[in-house]
Write a structure and sequence with these properties.
Layout: E1 2-3, E2 8-13, E3 18-22, E4 30-31, E5 35-41, E6 47-53, E7 56-61, E8 65-70, E9 75-85, E10 90-91, E11 94-101, E12 105-106, E13 111-114, E14 119-122, E15 124-125, E16 130-133, E17 141-144, E18 148-155, E19 161-171, E20 182-185, E21 189-193, E22 200-203, E23 211-215, E24 220-228, E25 234-245, E26 252-253, E27 277-281, E28 287-292, E29 313-320, E30 328-334
Parallel strand pairs: 1-10, 4-11, 13-19, 20-25, 26-30
Antiparallel strand pairs: 2-3, 2-5, 5-8, 6-9, 7-8, 9-11, 12-15, 14-17, 16-18, 18-19, 21-23, 22-24, 24-25, 27-28, 27-29, 29-30
Length: about 325
């Protein structure tokens, strides 16, 4: 025969460290994946209790109490218990509801940035009350600038916790090297190859090839390139190339008063050698002129170092470019 029993539920949620009693009422919310103990008041020594659980597994059964591990399936689940006494009388099954809550958080895919940039991790979550990042900050987002793993934990109103981890890779910029500043003379060229540093190239003049050749000119020039690697990171370098072209050294000049025709001994390309020295000697070996550097305001005007006009004659010059090459020597004639 069946017997209607007035059964009281005893609920103990071990993971949260508190207990409560519920009589014919919905039990406290539990977290997905948590363990909880449920029991009934009854004659444990003289009755047998049969338990049924949906959405969880009974991992301990003490007859009048059980330990349940709830699955990670949110929503309402049910506890049902039926008592049979020593006389075989079966009570009406008693059922109560347990709401399982499972907070969710997603940091998205791993991030990648270039050196010097930052990446914002966004904790995408619903119905949570707090956030906790690995550095103890508590915002919904986190700004990262270094390679590594980053995690966030979220907690809902019932104290249930979810977590997610994502990684950030910070790529170094291409270490582009065009070499040191240099000087070109004559017909030589200077070849640059930056193919090893990336996959696309942008030169100062609009070229997009991985190589560039500079040739001699009569002006200084800045040559730069931006190189982009396979991660989209950009590295740059700049080199100053001092172009001197062919050193056209006049063999004579006419420093006559008033006519302004070839009044100075002009060597235009020498400006590219700021450390060069120019020395001029007369036929007896006396130095009549000296300069360090030889720009337009330093050109020899046919006077000695005291400002005295020199007579028409041939003079011996020594030009040292200070570039490791032998000095350039020759003669120049003053024509009056």
């Amino acid at each position: 025969m069946k017997k209607h029993l007035n059964i009281l539920f005893l609920f103990i949620l071990i993971s949260l460290g508190w207990s409560s009693y519920a009589q014919k009422s919905t039990l406290p919310v539990a977290c997905g994946g948590s363990f909880a103990t449920y029991g009934v008041y009854g004659d444990n020594g003289n009755s047998f209790f049969e338990w049924e659980v949906t959405g969880g597994d009974i991992i301990r059964n003490y007859n009048d109490s059980i330990v349940v591990q709830w699955n990670n399936v949110g929503g309402p689940h049910f506890l049902t218990v039926t008592e049979t006494n020593i006389y075989g009388c079966v009570g009406e099954p008693y059922q109560d509801t347990v709401i399982i809550t499972i907070p969710f958080v997603d940091l998205g895919l791993d991030g990648e940035v270039c050196e010097g940039e930052s990446y914002e991790f966004i904790a995408s979550a619903d119905d949570v009350t707090s956030y906790l990042w690995q550095d103890d900050s508590d915002g919904e987002t986190f700004i990262a600038t270094e390679s590594g793993d980053y995690w966030v934990k979220v907690t809902d109103e019932y104290g249930c916790v979810a977590a997610d981890t994502a990684a950030l890779i910070v790529h170094e910029l291409p270490d582009v090297d065009l070499g040191p500043d240099t000087t070109l003379c004559g017909e030589e060229g200077l070849f640059f190859d930056v193919s090893e540093y990336g996959v696309s190239y942008d030169w100062f003049n609009g070229d997009i090839a991985p190589t560039f050749t500079a040739y001699t000119q009569t002006r200084d020039q800045e040559i730069w390139v931006d190189v982009t690697d396979e991660y989209g990171c950009v590295g740059s370098d700049t080199v100053v190339v001092r172009f001197c072209g062919e050193l056209e050294i006049p063999s004579a000049f006419t420093p006559n008063d008033g006519d302004n025709i070839n009044p100075t001994w002009a060597i235009e390309a020498l400006f590219a050698f700021p450390d060069a020295t120019v020395d001029i000697y007369n036929r007896w070996g006396d130095r009549v002129f000296h300069s360090t550097g030889y720009s337009s305001d330093q050109y020899w005007d046919g006077k000695d170092q005291k400002g005295k006009k020199l007579p028409m004659d041939s003079y011996y010059y020594v030009i040292d470019l200070k570039n490791g090459e032998d000095p350039i020597v020759g003669t120049v004639t003053i024509i009056r």
